[in-house]
Amino acid sequence: MSDGMALKIYRGRGSPFAWRVMACAEEKGVLYQAETLDASKKEHKAPEYLAINPRGQLPSLVDGDIVVCESLAALLYLDEAYPEHPLLPSERKERALVFQRSVEISNLQDKALPVLHLKRSNGDPAGVQKAIEALKGELKLWEEHTKHGFAVGSKFTLADTAVGPFVLSLRRYGASLKDYPNLAKYDETIRARPAFQKTVPPQWLESPDLDWLSDV
Ligand SMILES: N[C@@H](CCC(=O)N[C@@H](CS)C(=O)NCC(=O)O)C(=O)O
Predict the structure, then answer these.
(1) Could you read off the pLDDT of 3-24 as tens digits, one per residue?
(2) Cα separation of 97 and 95, whole Å?
């Protein structure tokens, strides 16, 4: 954990949660220093890091003497502390939806994780199928949410920094998205943004994509 630039973002090597925060800083043009911790070496459970984030989770944002744990809190902090290039819309109704979508995306992970766990452990086929159906139901909701191009409407907002990494994770885990054209287009739009390209989790670049979500 080196010194240097005031703003530091601690990330894991494969973490979509940390990707949110780094992509947000990049989108806003905020300079930061990335500190990459290797979870396989338990670097996120080392005393120096636990002093920053007592849960030993990644990411954490450290801005001088301000520490922000929790990725969504870090996104809101960045947009408020660095008001140039705001990512929250000024209109209240739209802002409300940005807050909603940013939180709502946790449902996608909640529905995807059981499929991944069951596939990884060769779970019973009926259980796998039930988990896949639940994930498909969730994807249908996001297919509707992204119909105007972004997570909220037709412009990039803070919600896309929260949602994007989790939608991009679907293809990483083998989902074709062929039955979800809006979501597939959304994936391509977000994937093409320099802020996201520049901050892809290093593990994704080093290892091949997986096929656990190939049935969705
Ligand atoms: N709610 C947290 C979740 C962060 C999280 O689960 N990070 C994972 C890495 S993807 C982690 O640090 N896991 C290690 C652990 O929980 O011990 C956030 O949004 O920042």
Answers:
(1) 456 899 999 999 999 999 999 9
(2) 5
pLDDT digits (tens, 9 = 90+) for 29-81: 999 999 999 999 999 999 999 999 999 999 999 999 999 999 999 999 999 99
pLDDT in tens, 98-121: 999 999 999 999 999 999 999 989
Buried b (16+ CB within 10 A) or exposed e, 137-150: ebbeebbebbeeeb
Read off the tokens for 141. Answer: 């909701």
Q: Would you say the CB of residue 58 lies under 6 angstroms from ligand 1? A: yes
CATH class of 92-206: mainly alpha
Q: Whose CA is nearest to atom 16 of ligand 1?
A: 57
The reported pLDDT for the residue numbered 33 is 97
Domain ranges for the chain: 7-81, 92-206
Distance 199 CA to ligand 1 centre (A): 17
Q: Best substitution site from 44, 55, 58 to test ligand 1's pocket, by max atoms within 8 Å of Cβ? A: 58
Q: Is the CB of 56 under 6 A from ligand 1?
A: yes
Q: What angle do CA 130, 111, 141 make, to 5 degrees?
A: 100
CB 102 near ligand 1, within 6 Å: no
At the fourth CATH level, which superfamily is domain 7-81? Glutaredoxin (3.40.30.10)
